[in-house]
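OP here, attaching both records as promised.
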Amino acid sequence: MTLQIYETIISDGHGELDADYLCIHETANPGATAYDHINYWSRDDRYAVHYVVDWNQRVYHCVPDNRKCWQVGNGNSRVIGIELCHATNGDDFAKVWTIGVEWAAYMLRKHGWGIDRLLCHDDCRRMWGGTDHTDPIEYFEEYGRTWDEFVNAVAARMDGEDDMELTPEQMEQIAAYVWGYERDGVSMAKRVESIARDAALEVLGYTNADMNGTADVYQLISDVHRLGLWSYKNERLESVDAYQIIRDTRDGVSELAEEVQELNDKIL
């Protein structure tokens, strides 16, 4: 599945953070959605955590990664955390599990960390103290799963990652190459900015309400690729020149394929 992270910053946390671990939590609030927690944290951010996700499989980024959250007692200065919402049925739990694995694999790769940097709240309790929480152990057991299975799933996801799969930051830099050239005197960036939001919604299923041109080009490219639209042709696309944009993106990315590994090395 394609990981979607929505910027929904509602707190500046409780001081600077230079984390070296990820922590997996569960909300212990059966049936409450990610937005329920976002709304609560918006009113009282004392225990807001960096990320939260529910069975809608959208990850919401609530606190900047470089800001401390009060989440694991004495280990607060060591971890970036995510809250997995507590599902009330097996199907929803499976969705939360899957996106939790996806997020953890993505974040570990993004920071250049190994699977040994993945912790649960119970690990943090035993390592640093200052907390008596043991989540998400009991939550996983409720649905017949274990923490070890989660860790193994994340490790397998990391091992199975295609070396060509890029982080959003890497995609953004590639987009700068792709969209920086001009065709017929008009830059590709200007063409993206000229696409009506409604057209993007209709054709691409684009759901980022903050889409505003060049800053979201990497997401547009990712969505086009995910939906298999590289060679797709449709009159609706042509009517807003989106087909040409997609074709230019495809051609540009193809030309850059040999440069991707070099770009990865520079960024990472």
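Record two, same layout:
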Amino acid sequence: MADATPLRLASRVDGAAAAPGLLCCNSLGTSMEMWDPQVPAWSLHHRVIRYDTPGHGASPVDPAASSLDELGRGALEVLDAQGIAVTDVCGLSLGGLVALWLAVNHPHRVRRLVLACTAARIGTAARWEERADAVRQGGMAAIASPVLERFFSHGFVERDPGTVDRIATMLRGVTSAGYADACLALRDADLSGDLGRITAPTLVICGSEDVATPPAVVRDVHDGIAGSRWLEIPDAGHLANLEQPETFATAVTAFLTDEADSHLA
């Protein structure tokens, strides 16, 4: 079912109302549908809450949403609209930073944390300024091709062109203003000094072929969070949940439900 928060963020809930919550936070340039491959498995055990970042998917542009703080507050409003006080959180890339922000600033609301293909600081300020300027001047078409190249491994582009086309359509459907605002949030976001404050049990996931947040960068997140678990998914690029959907879904389910999983270190 679709809902609206005070910020009018489009959202969807799957799973039993009495099940524990699982908030899914998207990457830059995608919508809540990026989690479609995982929802059938996760909704067996969780009430899965997905939402669209401002200016992405079905959510309208919010001029205030150009900072990580505002993006984090938007996520909280989605939870509040569903009456969920404590939840598991899974975020990928930009969504991973939002998940980190929640765990740092509202630890009482995060039960378990999954951080995928992300970092405490992603890229450089100059890079995000350039990306925002390019979108403002040339629209999403100006950055679509290079972004897609960074989303997926070369092997996957050849193996599953249908999924690549679906994400390309999703990317091109993002509003220029919403994308540029999110770039500004990434420009300024830096939680490097806060990783040691994370108290929620955490699983950190990377794709072995990710060029946007390479394994060495993601590993810094794992090293900075005491007691966190680590999973590197072979043959997966930045959108690892789409390249290896079953591996991703199974590992997250095992972690969130306390099931033993020999793949997690």
